[in-house]
Structure formats: C-alpha cells, structure tokens
Amino acid sequence: MATVANYSNIFVRYDLVGTGDAKGAKLSSKDAALQKVIQCVLEGDSDNIVDAVNEALATKDPMVVINEGLIKGMNEVSRLWDEGEYYLPQAIVASDAMLIGLEICEKKLGKSVEKKGTVVTHTAEGDIHDLGQKIVNALLRANGFEVVDLGKDVPVDEVISAVKKYNPVMVTGTALMTTTMTAFEKISKRLVKEGYKIPFVCGGGAVSNEYVQGYELGVYGKDASQAPGMASDAVNGMDWMQIREKWNS
Ligand code: B12
C-alpha cells in the first residue's frame, strides 16, 4: 500500500492560492515601485506586498501608494473579473493583499491629533465588499475624524442605532451589489423620520450619482478620497443639500 510521505500539501487550499502570474493583467504604472505594489495585489501576493509597499513608501506619500498602487491594482482585478479572467479565489487573495498594504499605509498616514468630529461608516446589509469602506475609514482617521466603523453586512437598524448613539456629523455607506444598495433608501427614510439632517454619503461599485440623488440626505461618493472633504464641510455647517450641490453637480 502506498504511503503519503509529505503531508504538508494536503493542507494547502489551492482554491485560495493566487496563480502567481496575473494572467491577462496589463501593466498599469510607469513607476517601478508602484508597479510592484500593483503586481502584488494582482497576484494576491500577501508575502511580498509588505516589502513592496514599504519600498514605495520610502519615496512616496501614502496617499499616492493607496491611490496609484493599491486601488489601481484592485481596479485591474475588477477588470479581470469582469472579463472572466479572475474568479473568486483570485479576488479573495487580491483583497487580502490589498488590505495588508492598506494597513501599512494607514500607519504611515498616522492619526491626526486634532479631533474634528465623528463619522459612522458601514457596508450595506448583505454585502461583504468592504475594501472601499476600509479606505474611507483610513482617510477619515488620518484627517482627524473619529470613525465608528460598523463593518460589513450591517442591518439598517444597526446604522440607525449607531447614529442615535454617536451623533455623527456624517454617515457613510458602501455597496458593491445592486441587490444591497437598496438598504440606503431605507436608512435615509428612517433618519429623516427621526429628524436627522446629516449627509449620508454613499459609494461603491454598484452605486451611481443618479441613484443617490433619489433619496433625501444622499450624497454620492465617487472616490474614498472625497470623504474627509465632505466631512469637513459638514463640520463647517454645510447641510446635506449644500454638500450634494458642491460635490455631485
Ligand atoms: C474583490 C471582489 C470580491 C471580494 C470582496 C473582498 C472584500 N473584502 O471586499 C470577494 C471575493 C469576497 C467577493 C465576493 C463576492 N462577490 Co465580488 N467582487 C469583487 C470585485 C472583483 C472588486 C470589488 C472591489 O473591491 N473593488 C475595489 C474597491 C476599492 O472599490 P469600491 O468598493 O467600489 O470603492 C471605491 C469607490 O466606489 C469609492 N467608495 C466606496 N465606498 C465609498 C464610500 C464613501 C463615503 C466614498 C466617499 C467613496 C466610496 O471609493 C473607492 C475608491 O477610492 C468586483 C468586480 C467589480 N467590477 O467591481 C466583484 C463584484 C462586486 N462581486 C460581485 C459578486 C456577485 C460577488 C459574490 C456574490 C460572488 C459569489 N457568487 O459568491 C460574492 C459576494 C458575497 C456578498 N454577499 O457580498 C459582483 C456584484 C454584481 C452586482 N452588481 O450586484 C461584482 C460587481 C462582480 C461582477 N461583475 O459580477 N467579491
């Protein structure tokens, strides 16, 4: 009877291992350090992304590494997924690598000592796509906002309770699926009923400006980098309609 000499491979999850060659990926940056970061995201290379991000941070601002490295890498993952080149396993390992990179950049961005106000952030009920929300959290914290991070797959009731409890200057929502973004309208209706006039900034792949303009309090967030500016406007006394007018028209 044959015996198994090496047990180690039995426990390797091949369904979660990146292909290592990022098949079909297009080179996206002329900068060698940023290209390495993009490549690590594309290949879901959680081992090498630490060095790649640190190398990029040696000469570049963390915001540049986030926008031109990590987000660009995920955009390319999205394209490859949409073209049927990438499937769940590649997207999972790519997301994991991106989150490792984001954490390093977040540390480098630091936390502003000045506290400007509280923002409640969440990813819609039924939705586990939280990378956009995590970027929003990092940028808000770096710009002096206290973030109450409700996480992903958050029920409408939980968002309303958090607003009552923390009295934030702004609420954010992220949704990547057409089936989950409908929770935003419910949240908006509940907040209005309770008398809140704070901006509810909604973003994520499935969400559009047109959709968000369809409910009260709604402000469309195209890029995570807009979140700190919008929150500052709220702190400075602009109401949700003025913020919508400024950022969405
Ligand atoms: C990565 C990914 C995953 C990862 C998610 C990991 C994670 N932790 O997030 C994994 C592999 C787990 C996954 C699972 C699934 N996925 Co998926 N996934 C993707 C993929 C490839 C990329 C999405 C992404 O992370 N983009 C990068 C981030 C950074 O972008 P973003 O969130 O949009 O954020 C940017 C902006 O929108 C904005 N933003 C976002 N939020 C906010 C908030 C504010 C306040 C502001 C200002 C800005 C802002 O800022 C960011 C940029 O700066 C997309 C493909 C695509 N074309 O989008 C599919 C996609 C989203 N997935 C899809 C599906 C169907 C699924 C699954 C159901 C698959 C399955 N059969 O199991 C499950 C979902 C389970 C669930 N209940 O949620 C579909 C959704 C279809 C739809 N329209 O409804 C997509 C579109 C793929 C497709 N074309 O079919 N997925």
From TrEMBL:
Keyword Metal-binding appears in the UniProt entry: yes
SUPFAM superfamilies, per the entry: Cobalamin (vitamin B12)-binding domain (SSF52242), Methionine synthase domain (SSF47644)
Superkingdom of source: Bacteria
GO cellular component, one term: cytosol
Keyword Metal-binding recorded: yes
Limits of the B12-binding N-terminal domain: 24-117
Pfam families: B12-binding, B12-binding_2
GO biological process, one term: methanogenesis
The entry's keywords: Cobalt, Metal-binding, Methyltransferase, Transferase
InterPro entries reported for this sequence: Cbl-bd_cap (IPR003759), Cobalamin-bd (IPR006158), Cobalamin-bd_sf (IPR036724), Corrinoid_p (IPR012741), Met_Synthase/Corrinoid (IPR050554), Meth_synthase_dom (IPR036594)
UniProt GO molecular function: cobalamin binding; cobalt ion binding; methionine synthase activity
Residues of the B12-binding domain: 116-245
PANTHER family given in the database record: METHIONINE SYNTHASE
Family statement drawn from the similarity comment of this UniProt entry: Belongs to the methylamine corrinoid protein family.
Protein name (database record): Methyltransferase cognate corrinoid protein
Taxonomic path: Bacteria, Bacillati, Bacillota, Clostridia, Eubacteriales
